[in-house]
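REQUEST FORM: STRUCTURE PREDICTION
Request ID: SP-0412
Submitted by: Lab K.M.
Chain count: 1
Length (residues): 316
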Amino acid sequence: MPHTRNPGTPLATDWFDAVQINRPATESRAATLGTRRSVKGVHQAAWLVNAIRCMDLTTLAGDDTEDRVARLCAKARRPLDDWIVTALGLPEMPRVGAVCVYPTMVPAAVRALSNTGIPVASVATGFPAGLMPLNLRLAEIGYAVDMGASEIDIVITRAHVLRGDWAALYDEIAAMREACGDAHMKAILATGDLVTLGNVHAASMVAMQAGADFIKTSTGKEAVNATLPVGLVMVRALREYGARTGTRIGFKPAGGMKTAKDAISWQILMREEAGRDWLEPELFRLGASSMLGDIERQIAHFVTGRYAAAHRHALA
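STATUS: Completed
RESULT:
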């Protein structure tokens, strides 16, 4: 991630405390994102290759093993079959944005991705609930960084948002940002737990003010994860933060995305609301491994004119 780190700002609740979010209007705008333009043929293939470049391949299961992580990293190194890369005329195999694992799996991922340039991201801070004493959450960040993680996906205390205790939320995230050191920090807001779009906007602003380099929708473990209306609110918040501070903040939707169509819809959101710069892995990540198989299948269809059986493409 070569872009400039977010230095943060002092807590400024006046940036968001008077903001009103019109839910029907937000949902209406989000609903048009995938219908206002048709992406077909070579253009669709290009958008899907770019989605691979911006993808955080992830395994966050209770039965994760080093072998499973190594398998995921093998897919990260070669997300497409060689014949597809050749047929598309790509100069080289595309690489994913990162591989994301639990802290104890970081060493295995670092070994498997040695000399590839693919970053290792780690969830931390008591993922997914975050309901641990702060000192233990900070220690978990330190452990993941010491093991070699260069990106840390933290989770916030949702209760701070629900109570409107913005100072507590700011202080917590600022402490996590300091614990990350040189590792980039993605702040997971768990938007499905925040009830209102106003809370989503406010939590996004506080996270950025506290120094988050990325804001991320979900852990993938909530009942409702990434949705386009929530993404629209968050992207407009980071756009406003950039206008106020000159600092560009990244965005990562996660959870609930399974198809190539989803990958294109999220990229259209970024292109229309944030601009072309936010279609690069330095500023945009897709937190979904399950949709890689469908992306590869759709690209193969573009090349051959027919759909392959799902088992022909290795699962992420």
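NOTES: The chain has twelve helices and seven strands.
Reviewed by: T.R.
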